[in-house]
Amino acid sequence: MKLIVVVASLLLPAQERETSDAVAFKFGRIIPVSGPDISPGVILVERGKIKKVGRDVAVPDGVKIVDLSAYAAMPGMVDAATGIGITGNPNEESSEITPRFRVFDSIDPRDNRFQHSIQVGVTTLLVEPGERNVIGGLGSVVKPVGRSGREMLVREDAVLKAVMGRRPAWGNQSPRRSQASFFSRRPTTRMGVVWEFRKAFLDARRYREEKPATSDEDKEILLKAMDRKLPVRVFASRSFDIETALRLADEFGLTLQLEEAEEAHRYVGELAERKVAVVLRPWFRTSDLYLPEGGEIRFDTFARLAAAGVPVALLHGDLDVRESMLAMAAMAVKYGAKREDALRAVTINPAGILGVGERVGTLEEGKDADFVVLTGDPLDVKSRIEWVFVDGRRVYGKKIGDY
Question: 16-20, 124-128, 175-179: which has the minimum mean pLDDT?
Fold first, then answer.
Protein backbone atom coordinates (compact mmCIF):
# COMPACT_ATOMS: atom_id res chain seq x y z
CA MET A 1 0.00 0.00 0.00
CA LYS A 2 2.84 2.41 0.78
CA LEU A 3 4.37 1.80 -2.63
CA ILE A 4 1.06 2.65 -4.33
CA VAL A 5 0.82 5.93 -2.43
CA VAL A 6 4.35 6.92 -3.37
CA VAL A 7 3.83 6.13 -7.04
CA ALA A 8 0.53 8.04 -7.11
CA SER A 9 2.21 11.10 -5.63
CA LEU A 10 4.92 10.98 -8.27
CA LEU A 11 2.28 11.13 -10.98
CA LEU A 12 1.17 14.56 -9.77
CA PRO A 13 2.45 17.60 -11.73
CA ALA A 14 5.66 18.96 -10.21
CA GLN A 15 4.06 22.21 -9.04
CA GLU A 16 1.17 20.36 -7.34
CA ARG A 17 3.55 17.95 -5.60
CA GLU A 18 5.57 20.85 -4.21
CA THR A 19 2.53 22.65 -2.79
CA SER A 20 0.34 19.68 -1.75
CA ASP A 21 1.27 19.86 1.96
CA ALA A 22 -0.44 22.53 4.02
CA VAL A 23 1.73 25.24 5.59
CA ALA A 24 0.72 27.88 8.13
CA PHE A 25 2.55 31.21 7.99
CA LYS A 26 2.42 33.36 11.12
CA PHE A 27 2.89 37.11 10.64
CA GLY A 28 3.02 40.10 12.92
CA ARG A 29 0.84 41.91 10.42
CA ILE A 30 -1.14 40.88 7.36
CA ILE A 31 -2.23 43.51 4.82
CA PRO A 32 -4.95 41.79 2.75
CA VAL A 33 -5.77 45.05 0.84
CA SER A 34 -9.39 43.92 0.46
CA GLY A 35 -10.05 44.74 4.11
CA PRO A 36 -8.48 46.02 7.32
CA ASP A 37 -5.04 44.88 8.42
CA ILE A 38 -4.80 41.78 10.60
CA SER A 39 -2.30 42.03 13.49
CA PRO A 40 -1.11 39.41 14.22
CA GLY A 41 -2.38 36.91 11.70
CA VAL A 42 -2.02 33.55 10.00
CA ILE A 43 -2.13 32.55 6.34
CA LEU A 44 -2.91 28.85 5.91
CA VAL A 45 -1.77 27.62 2.49
CA GLU A 46 -2.72 24.34 0.88
CA ARG A 47 -1.90 23.19 -2.66
CA GLY A 48 -0.81 26.67 -3.70
CA LYS A 49 -4.03 28.36 -2.54
CA ILE A 50 -4.96 30.37 0.53
CA LYS A 51 -7.21 28.12 2.59
CA LYS A 52 -7.65 30.46 5.56
CA VAL A 53 -6.43 33.91 6.54
CA GLY A 54 -7.16 35.72 9.77
CA ARG A 55 -6.21 36.50 13.33
CA ASP A 56 -7.49 33.32 14.97
CA VAL A 57 -6.92 30.66 12.34
CA ALA A 58 -6.88 27.19 13.84
CA VAL A 59 -3.83 25.35 12.54
CA PRO A 60 -4.61 21.63 12.06
CA ASP A 61 -2.40 19.07 13.78
CA GLY A 62 0.63 18.07 11.77
CA VAL A 63 0.67 21.21 9.63
CA LYS A 64 4.08 22.84 9.27
CA ILE A 65 4.24 26.29 10.90
CA VAL A 66 6.55 28.96 9.49
CA ASP A 67 6.99 31.67 12.10
CA LEU A 68 7.45 35.10 10.51
CA SER A 69 5.97 37.04 13.41
CA ALA A 70 8.57 39.78 13.04
CA TYR A 71 7.40 40.54 9.49
CA ALA A 72 4.47 41.90 7.51
CA ALA A 73 2.77 40.22 4.54
CA MET A 74 0.98 41.80 1.59
CA PRO A 75 -0.34 40.40 -1.71
CA GLY A 76 2.09 39.87 -4.54
CA MET A 77 1.99 42.95 -6.75
CA VAL A 78 0.51 43.03 -10.24
CA ASP A 79 2.29 44.87 -13.06
CA ALA A 80 -0.45 45.84 -15.52
CA ALA A 81 1.83 46.68 -18.48
CA THR A 82 5.29 45.40 -19.30
CA GLY A 83 7.35 44.20 -22.21
CA ILE A 84 9.74 42.00 -20.25
CA GLY A 85 10.14 38.39 -21.25
CA ILE A 86 9.65 39.08 -24.95
CA THR A 87 12.29 37.53 -27.18
CA GLY A 88 13.36 40.07 -29.79
CA ASN A 89 11.34 43.02 -31.03
CA PRO A 90 7.98 43.43 -29.20
CA ASN A 91 6.53 44.98 -32.38
CA GLU A 92 5.50 42.97 -35.44
CA GLU A 93 5.93 45.69 -38.08
CA SER A 94 4.95 43.75 -41.18
CA SER A 95 1.67 45.64 -40.96
CA GLU A 96 0.23 48.51 -38.93
CA ILE A 97 -2.77 46.38 -37.98
CA THR A 98 -1.90 43.00 -36.42
CA PRO A 99 -4.68 41.95 -34.00
CA ARG A 100 -4.09 38.22 -34.43
CA PHE A 101 -0.50 38.27 -33.22
CA ARG A 102 -0.13 37.00 -29.65
CA VAL A 103 2.71 38.17 -27.45
CA PHE A 104 2.50 34.84 -25.63
CA ASP A 105 4.27 33.25 -28.59
CA SER A 106 7.39 35.34 -27.83
CA ILE A 107 7.65 34.89 -24.07
CA ASP A 108 10.99 33.51 -22.88
CA PRO A 109 10.67 32.02 -19.36
CA ARG A 110 14.45 32.34 -18.91
CA ASP A 111 14.48 36.13 -19.27
CA ASN A 112 16.34 37.28 -16.14
CA ARG A 113 14.04 40.31 -15.91
CA PHE A 114 11.37 37.98 -14.58
CA GLN A 115 13.64 37.26 -11.63
CA HIS A 116 14.13 40.96 -11.06
CA SER A 117 10.36 41.44 -11.00
CA ILE A 118 10.11 38.79 -8.30
CA GLN A 119 12.77 40.54 -6.21
CA VAL A 120 10.73 43.76 -6.17
CA GLY A 121 7.56 41.88 -5.22
CA VAL A 122 5.80 41.53 -8.58
CA THR A 123 4.16 38.11 -8.89
CA THR A 124 1.78 38.70 -11.82
CA LEU A 125 2.41 40.66 -15.04
CA LEU A 126 0.73 41.64 -18.26
CA VAL A 127 3.21 41.12 -21.09
CA GLU A 128 2.03 43.07 -24.13
CA PRO A 129 3.17 44.19 -27.60
CA GLY A 130 5.09 47.44 -28.03
CA GLU A 131 3.99 50.83 -29.33
CA ARG A 132 5.03 50.76 -33.00
CA ASN A 133 1.76 49.39 -34.41
CA VAL A 134 -1.63 51.07 -34.50
CA ILE A 135 -3.14 47.77 -33.35
CA GLY A 136 -0.32 45.59 -32.11
CA GLY A 137 -1.86 42.33 -30.95
CA LEU A 138 -2.91 40.45 -27.84
CA GLY A 139 -1.27 40.71 -24.42
CA SER A 140 -1.03 37.86 -21.91
CA VAL A 141 -1.07 37.70 -18.11
CA VAL A 142 1.67 35.51 -16.65
CA LYS A 143 3.47 34.78 -13.42
CA PRO A 144 7.25 35.33 -13.49
CA VAL A 145 8.04 31.72 -12.54
CA GLY A 146 7.80 28.53 -14.55
CA ARG A 147 9.79 26.30 -16.86
CA SER A 148 7.56 27.05 -19.81
CA GLY A 149 5.15 29.70 -21.00
CA ARG A 150 2.25 27.35 -20.26
CA GLU A 151 3.35 26.96 -16.64
CA MET A 152 3.54 30.74 -16.29
CA LEU A 153 0.25 31.53 -18.03
CA VAL A 154 -2.67 33.02 -16.11
CA ARG A 155 -4.72 34.47 -18.97
CA GLU A 156 -3.67 34.26 -22.60
CA ASP A 157 -5.77 36.88 -24.45
CA ALA A 158 -6.17 39.55 -21.77
CA VAL A 159 -6.15 42.77 -23.81
CA LEU A 160 -5.92 43.98 -27.39
CA LYS A 161 -3.12 46.56 -27.55
CA ALA A 162 -3.53 49.73 -29.63
CA VAL A 163 -1.68 53.04 -29.77
CA MET A 164 -2.73 56.64 -30.32
CA GLY A 165 -0.29 59.46 -31.01
CA ARG A 166 2.79 59.63 -33.18
CA ARG A 167 4.60 56.46 -32.16
CA PRO A 168 3.15 54.22 -34.92
CA ALA A 169 4.13 56.86 -37.48
CA TRP A 170 7.74 57.29 -36.31
CA GLY A 171 10.16 56.19 -39.00
CA ASN A 172 7.53 56.04 -41.72
CA GLN A 173 8.12 58.24 -44.76
CA SER A 174 5.67 59.67 -47.20
CA PRO A 175 5.82 57.70 -50.49
CA ARG A 176 5.91 61.09 -52.22
CA ARG A 177 9.41 62.43 -53.07
CA SER A 178 11.27 59.70 -51.17
CA GLN A 179 13.39 56.75 -52.13
CA ALA A 180 11.18 53.67 -52.12
CA SER A 181 11.65 51.44 -49.05
CA PHE A 182 9.61 49.41 -46.61
CA PHE A 183 9.04 52.58 -44.56
CA SER A 184 7.64 54.52 -47.53
CA ARG A 185 4.15 53.92 -46.24
CA ARG A 186 1.33 55.26 -44.12
CA PRO A 187 0.58 56.39 -41.49
CA THR A 188 2.93 59.34 -41.16
CA THR A 189 0.74 61.55 -38.93
CA ARG A 190 -1.70 61.34 -36.02
CA MET A 191 -4.49 61.63 -38.59
CA GLY A 192 -3.18 58.56 -40.35
CA VAL A 193 -2.90 56.60 -37.08
CA VAL A 194 -6.52 57.33 -36.21
CA TRP A 195 -7.71 56.43 -39.70
CA GLU A 196 -5.85 53.10 -39.65
CA PHE A 197 -7.55 52.26 -36.35
CA ARG A 198 -10.97 53.33 -37.56
CA LYS A 199 -10.64 51.57 -40.91
CA ALA A 200 -9.72 48.29 -39.20
CA PHE A 201 -12.92 48.32 -37.16
CA LEU A 202 -15.06 49.51 -40.06
CA ASP A 203 -13.72 46.62 -42.17
CA ALA A 204 -14.52 44.21 -39.34
CA ARG A 205 -18.07 45.55 -39.13
CA ARG A 206 -18.51 45.12 -42.89
CA TYR A 207 -17.10 41.60 -42.64
CA ARG A 208 -19.78 40.72 -40.09
CA GLU A 209 -22.53 42.10 -42.32
CA GLU A 210 -21.30 40.29 -45.43
CA LYS A 211 -20.66 36.95 -43.64
CA PRO A 212 -17.98 35.63 -46.02
CA ALA A 213 -17.39 31.89 -46.27
CA THR A 214 -13.72 32.25 -45.31
CA SER A 215 -12.93 33.26 -41.73
CA ASP A 216 -10.59 36.21 -41.09
CA GLU A 217 -8.89 35.93 -37.69
CA ASP A 218 -7.93 39.62 -37.53
CA LYS A 219 -11.51 40.70 -38.06
CA GLU A 220 -12.86 38.06 -35.67
CA ILE A 221 -10.68 39.49 -32.90
CA LEU A 222 -11.83 43.04 -33.66
CA LEU A 223 -15.45 41.87 -33.57
CA LYS A 224 -14.78 40.30 -30.19
CA ALA A 225 -13.59 43.71 -29.01
CA MET A 226 -16.72 45.40 -30.42
CA ASP A 227 -18.84 42.83 -28.58
CA ARG A 228 -17.08 43.89 -25.35
CA LYS A 229 -15.61 40.43 -24.87
CA LEU A 230 -12.06 41.74 -25.14
CA PRO A 231 -10.86 45.04 -23.64
CA VAL A 232 -8.92 47.41 -25.89
CA ARG A 233 -5.81 48.80 -24.18
CA VAL A 234 -4.91 52.13 -25.81
CA PHE A 235 -1.47 53.62 -25.19
CA ALA A 236 -2.09 57.41 -25.09
CA SER A 237 -0.17 60.14 -23.28
CA ARG A 238 -1.28 63.55 -24.58
CA SER A 239 -4.73 64.93 -23.76
CA PHE A 240 -5.91 65.00 -27.37
CA ASP A 241 -4.83 61.37 -27.84
CA ILE A 242 -6.82 60.41 -24.75
CA GLU A 243 -9.81 62.31 -26.13
CA THR A 244 -9.45 60.51 -29.47
CA ALA A 245 -9.38 57.13 -27.70
CA LEU A 246 -12.58 58.00 -25.83
CA ARG A 247 -14.27 59.04 -29.06
CA LEU A 248 -13.24 55.85 -30.88
CA ALA A 249 -14.43 53.73 -27.96
CA ASP A 250 -17.86 55.34 -28.29
CA GLU A 251 -17.91 54.92 -32.06
CA PHE A 252 -17.25 51.17 -31.94
CA GLY A 253 -18.65 50.25 -28.53
CA LEU A 254 -15.29 49.24 -27.04
CA THR A 255 -14.33 48.48 -23.46
CA LEU A 256 -11.51 50.99 -23.18
CA GLN A 257 -8.43 50.93 -21.00
CA LEU A 258 -5.90 53.77 -21.10
CA GLU A 259 -2.17 53.17 -20.68
CA GLU A 260 0.45 55.80 -19.78
CA ALA A 261 -2.20 58.57 -19.69
CA GLU A 262 0.04 61.26 -18.20
CA GLU A 263 -2.49 63.98 -19.03
CA ALA A 264 -5.47 62.03 -17.69
CA HIS A 265 -5.86 64.76 -15.05
CA ARG A 266 -7.68 66.77 -17.73
CA TYR A 267 -10.46 64.13 -17.95
CA VAL A 268 -10.89 62.98 -14.35
CA GLY A 269 -14.66 63.54 -14.27
CA GLU A 270 -15.33 61.89 -17.61
CA LEU A 271 -13.10 58.90 -16.88
CA ALA A 272 -14.82 58.40 -13.53
CA GLU A 273 -18.29 58.63 -15.05
CA ARG A 274 -17.45 56.16 -17.80
CA LYS A 275 -15.46 53.85 -15.46
CA VAL A 276 -12.57 53.79 -17.92
CA ALA A 277 -9.64 51.94 -16.36
CA VAL A 278 -6.33 53.82 -16.35
CA VAL A 279 -2.92 52.15 -16.18
CA LEU A 280 -0.88 55.18 -15.18
CA ARG A 281 2.81 55.84 -15.69
CA PRO A 282 3.69 58.00 -12.64
CA TRP A 283 6.32 60.50 -13.68
CA PHE A 284 7.54 61.32 -10.18
CA ARG A 285 11.21 61.37 -11.10
CA THR A 286 12.51 64.92 -11.34
CA SER A 287 14.49 64.15 -14.50
CA ASP A 288 11.30 63.26 -16.40
CA LEU A 289 9.10 66.28 -15.85
CA TYR A 290 7.72 66.57 -19.35
CA LEU A 291 6.25 64.40 -22.05
CA PRO A 292 8.47 63.86 -25.12
CA GLU A 293 6.27 66.20 -27.16
CA GLY A 294 5.53 68.66 -24.40
CA GLY A 295 2.30 68.76 -22.45
CA GLU A 296 1.59 69.00 -18.75
CA ILE A 297 2.69 66.58 -16.06
CA ARG A 298 1.02 66.75 -12.66
CA PHE A 299 2.35 64.73 -9.75
CA ASP A 300 -1.13 64.52 -8.20
CA THR A 301 -2.75 62.85 -11.22
CA PHE A 302 -3.00 59.49 -9.48
CA ALA A 303 -4.44 61.01 -6.32
CA ARG A 304 -7.10 62.85 -8.32
CA LEU A 305 -8.07 59.81 -10.37
CA ALA A 306 -8.27 57.54 -7.33
CA ALA A 307 -10.29 60.07 -5.31
CA ALA A 308 -12.80 60.34 -8.16
CA GLY A 309 -13.31 56.57 -8.26
CA VAL A 310 -11.45 55.86 -11.51
CA PRO A 311 -10.15 52.25 -11.63
CA VAL A 312 -6.45 53.05 -11.72
CA ALA A 313 -3.28 50.97 -11.54
CA LEU A 314 0.25 52.28 -11.03
CA LEU A 315 3.14 51.24 -13.25
CA HIS A 316 6.86 51.45 -12.69
CA GLY A 317 8.31 54.93 -12.92
CA ASP A 318 10.24 54.40 -16.14
CA LEU A 319 9.75 52.58 -19.43
CA ASP A 320 13.12 50.84 -19.21
CA VAL A 321 14.40 51.01 -15.63
CA ARG A 322 12.63 48.46 -13.43
CA GLU A 323 11.90 50.67 -10.46
CA SER A 324 10.02 49.35 -7.46
CA MET A 325 6.25 49.65 -7.70
CA LEU A 326 6.18 50.19 -3.94
CA ALA A 327 8.36 53.26 -4.43
CA MET A 328 5.80 54.58 -6.93
CA ALA A 329 2.99 53.89 -4.47
CA ALA A 330 4.87 55.73 -1.72
CA MET A 331 5.41 58.70 -4.00
CA ALA A 332 1.71 58.72 -4.85
CA VAL A 333 0.95 59.12 -1.14
CA LYS A 334 3.51 61.91 -0.93
CA TYR A 335 1.56 63.77 -3.63
CA GLY A 336 -1.84 63.49 -2.02
CA ALA A 337 -3.12 59.92 -2.46
CA LYS A 338 -4.59 57.89 0.37
CA ARG A 339 -2.47 55.00 1.60
CA GLU A 340 -5.18 52.44 0.83
CA ASP A 341 -5.61 53.78 -2.71
CA ALA A 342 -1.87 53.52 -3.38
CA LEU A 343 -1.74 49.91 -2.17
CA ARG A 344 -4.82 48.98 -4.18
CA ALA A 345 -3.19 50.49 -7.29
CA VAL A 346 -0.39 47.89 -7.24
CA THR A 347 -2.50 44.88 -6.21
CA ILE A 348 -6.27 44.56 -6.43
CA ASN A 349 -6.85 47.26 -9.07
CA PRO A 350 -4.47 45.93 -11.75
CA ALA A 351 -5.71 42.39 -11.05
CA GLY A 352 -9.28 43.53 -11.72
CA ILE A 353 -8.28 45.51 -14.81
CA LEU A 354 -6.57 42.42 -16.25
CA GLY A 355 -9.53 40.16 -15.48
CA VAL A 356 -7.63 37.96 -13.01
CA GLY A 357 -8.99 39.37 -9.75
CA GLU A 358 -10.54 36.04 -8.84
CA ARG A 359 -7.02 34.61 -8.48
CA VAL A 360 -4.60 37.35 -7.42
CA GLY A 361 -4.38 40.86 -5.99
CA THR A 362 -5.55 40.25 -2.40
CA LEU A 363 -4.94 37.87 0.48
CA GLU A 364 -8.28 36.07 0.70
CA GLU A 365 -9.52 32.52 0.97
CA GLY A 366 -9.43 30.70 -2.34
CA LYS A 367 -6.91 33.04 -3.99
CA ASP A 368 -3.46 32.00 -5.19
CA ALA A 369 -0.94 32.02 -2.35
CA ASP A 370 1.12 34.87 -3.83
CA PHE A 371 2.49 37.14 -1.12
CA VAL A 372 5.40 39.41 -0.28
CA VAL A 373 7.07 39.41 3.14
CA LEU A 374 8.53 42.73 4.33
CA THR A 375 10.43 44.01 7.32
CA GLY A 376 7.90 46.82 7.87
CA ASP A 377 5.14 48.83 6.25
CA PRO A 378 5.12 48.50 2.45
CA LEU A 379 5.18 52.26 1.93
CA ASP A 380 8.00 52.93 4.38
CA VAL A 381 11.19 53.50 2.37
CA LYS A 382 13.17 51.69 5.09
CA SER A 383 11.19 48.46 4.61
CA ARG A 384 12.85 45.63 2.72
CA ILE A 385 11.38 42.69 0.86
CA GLU A 386 12.83 39.58 2.52
CA TRP A 387 10.81 36.80 0.86
CA VAL A 388 8.41 36.37 -2.04
CA PHE A 389 6.03 33.42 -2.43
CA VAL A 390 4.21 32.37 -5.59
CA ASP A 391 1.55 29.66 -5.35
CA GLY A 392 2.78 29.01 -1.82
CA ARG A 393 6.36 28.35 -2.91
CA ARG A 394 9.33 30.46 -1.83
CA VAL A 395 10.74 31.97 -5.02
CA TYR A 396 12.91 34.67 -3.44
CA GLY A 397 14.70 34.95 -0.10
CA LYS A 398 16.85 32.73 2.08
CA LYS A 399 15.67 29.43 3.52
CA ILE A 400 13.41 29.78 6.58
CA GLY A 401 14.52 27.13 9.06
CA ASP A 402 13.82 23.83 7.32
CA TYR A 403 11.35 25.41 4.88
Answer: 16-20
